[in-house]
Design goal:
With 251 residues, the chain is an alpha+beta fold. The chain has 8 helices and 11 strands. It has helices at residues 13-18, 26-35, 116-125, 127-152, 156-172, 188-195, 199-211, 227-234; strands at residues 39-42, 47-49, 57-63, 66-71, 77-83, 88-89, 102-105, 109-115, 181-183, 215-218, 221-224.
């Protein structure tokens, strides 16, 4: 098989995320390109991971969006996180006997399938890649922690303000949002499933933010009009999403 070139991998959203933590050298990029050589397409509303089943492969998102969620016996759904380009599907499913959450595409997606053995071999061989993936896992944990604070202590309007700024910041990290606007990948029901509100409640909270001059909306596009005020309202501090680059010793 012809060895993939490192050049095209530079524009991959996973590399964009890694670059926030550590710069990969040519060898790292080439090794990463080697494992991202199995591309699959997943249609909107199709399952990628189903809770209770065994999985031994990761999927790196090139394009599209998905949700990681837990479905309760009552039929209620709690979305744990929105999966975006540059994210990895399979944390933590591959590291348990059976998946503990489900993942479903909310748009058409392009993914790279990476067998778990290839993934672990990559981390063993390339220390910078392993370090970047540790940062990736730490960021995921920080996102979940903020969502726990949302559910436990923040008021509904505060939760929504925090989620809007979190989504904007995450999309900016892969060049998918401007300085003050983004296209919301979720419906209002989906947003409610993240922050623990009903769709009508989300609609009322969005209307309140618009009345207060904090945001404007046109369809799914959200524009932040007063970021400072929205940050104060949601107690949003982006440090948990933006890692200070790791200093590497000179060779």
């Amino acid at each position: 098989m012809r060895k993939p070139a490192a050049g095209p991998i530079r524009s991959h959203p996973l590399v964009a995320r890694f670059n926030h933590a550590i710069s990969l050298d040519e060898g790292d990029l080439s090794a990463l390109a080697d494992v991202l050589n199995r591309k699959v397409v997943v249609k909107k509303a199709k399952d990628i991971i189903v809770e209770g089943y065994e999985y031994r492969a990761l999927h790196v998102v090139e394009n599209g969006f998905a949700i990681r969620y837990k479905l309760l016996h009552s039929g209620k759904r709690q979305i744990m996180n929105v999966i975006m380009p540059g994210d990895i599907v399979g944390f933590p499913a591959c590291f348990y006997e059976h998946a503990v959450f489900s993942v479903t595409a909310i748009s058409d997606m392009t993914l790279h399938r990476v067998p778990l053995d290839d993934f672990t071999a990559l981390c063993t061989a390339r220390a910078r890649v392993a370090t970047a993936l540790l940062w990736f896992a730490a960021r995921e944990a920080a996102i979940y922690a903020e969502h726990i604070v949302d559910a436990g202590r923040r008021e509904p309007l505060e939760r929504l303000a925090h989620f809007l700024l979190e989504t904007l910041t995450r999309l900016q990290g892969i060049g998918a949002a401007s300085e003050d606007s983004f296209v919301m990948p979720l419906s209002q029901e989906g947003v409610g499933n993240v922050i623990g509100l009903s769709a009508p409640h989300v609609n009322r909270m969005l209307a309140e933010l618009r009345r207060d001059g904090l945001i404007a909306m046109s369809g799914h596009e959200v524009r932040i009009l007063d970021r400072a005020a929205l940050q104060i309202l949601g107690e949003f501090h982006p440090a948990y999403l933006i890692r200070t680059p790791i200093h590497q010793p000179a060779p």
